[in-house]
């Protein structure tokens, strides 16, 4: 699995066993790293190919050797970042048998919000571009579909074990929860006034998942109810 550092996205297609990156690999990564930093302050729609090439220390023609367009750069960054989000979400999908749902959902919610904050400027650009770029929209839909299916499988397992509540079909419920999360986190990335305040994001997201699937609140909420 590829990893992504806070300084930039890692490539997800490096061949296993390669001992050192080639010159071409380094140039391609320089484009990705440069774009990752430029997008912190500048929307991709206003960046030119020359901007991306210059930041990477390359010529315009060298850029086109690796990418056909600036949108393809965003496409290349999305996979590794999504893997980061999926890893942060893993306790939702593969909760250990000795971990209660509240602990798992709370921990996963906190990790997802942390990762989303780290890569929010890239995910904001994806949200802005998917309506106009069919290939990017298809990739985003496919990736979200993997999240939805993993959550649906987890809901189905928990229902079969008598842990989760009965309700809508697992995939429909998982889709509703995932799209809710995607929209809310997207609003956070855009710094929308309608976004959940950052300090409330983890508790809000965890509460929605826990009450919807398991019929319980967070551990803090439960402790408060017991105390009163």
Automatic annotation (TrEMBL):
Protein name per the record: AcrR family transcriptional regulator
Domain of life of the native organism: Bacteria
A biological-process GO annotation: negative regulation of DNA-templated transcription
PANTHER family referenced in this protein's UniProt entry, alphabetically: HTH-TYPE TRANSCRIPTIONAL REGULATOR ETHR, HTH-TYPE TRANSCRIPTIONAL REGULATOR RUTR
Domain HTH tetR-type per the UniProt entry, residue ranges: 25-85
Organism: Pseudonocardia alni (Amycolata alni)
DNA-binding region ranges: 48-67
Annotated region described as Disordered, given as residue ranges: 1-25
GO molecular function: DNA-binding transcription factor activity; transcription cis-regulatory region binding
UniProt keyword annotations, A-Z: DNA-binding, Transcription, Transcription regulation
Biased composition (Basic and acidic residues): 12-25
Stored SUPFAM superfamilies: Homeodomain-like, Tetracyclin repressor-like, C-terminal domain
Pfam families per record: EthR_C (PF21313), TetR_N (PF00440)
């Amino acid at each position: 699995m590829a990893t992504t550092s806070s300084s930039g996205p890692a490539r997800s297609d490096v061949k296993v066993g390669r001992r050192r990156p080639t010159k071409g690999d380094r140039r391609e990564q320089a484009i990705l790293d440069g774009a990752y930093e430029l997008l912190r302050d500048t929307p991709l729609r206003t960046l030119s190919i020359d901007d991306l090439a210059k930041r990477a220390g390359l010529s315009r023609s060298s850029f086109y050797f690796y990418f056909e367009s600036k949108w393809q750069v965003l496409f290349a960054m999305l996979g590794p970042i999504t893997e980061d989000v999926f890893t942060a979400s893993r306790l939702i999908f593969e909760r250990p048998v000795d971990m209660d749902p509240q602990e798992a959902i709370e921990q996963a919610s906190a990790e997802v919000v942390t990762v989303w904050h780290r890569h929010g400027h890239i995910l904001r650009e994806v949200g802005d571009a998917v309506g106009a770029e069919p290939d990017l929209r298809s990739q985003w839909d496919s990736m979200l579909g993997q999240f939805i299916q993993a959550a649906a499988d987890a809901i189905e397992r928990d229902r079969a074990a008598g842990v989760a509540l009965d309700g809508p079909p697992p995939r429909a419920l998982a889709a509703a929860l995932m799209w809710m999360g995607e929209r809310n986190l997207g609003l956070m990335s855009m710094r929308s006034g309608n976004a959940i305040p950052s300090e409330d994001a983890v508790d809000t997201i965890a509460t929605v998942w826990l009450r919807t699937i398991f019929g319980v609140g967070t551990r803090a909420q439960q402790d408060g109810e017991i105390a009163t």
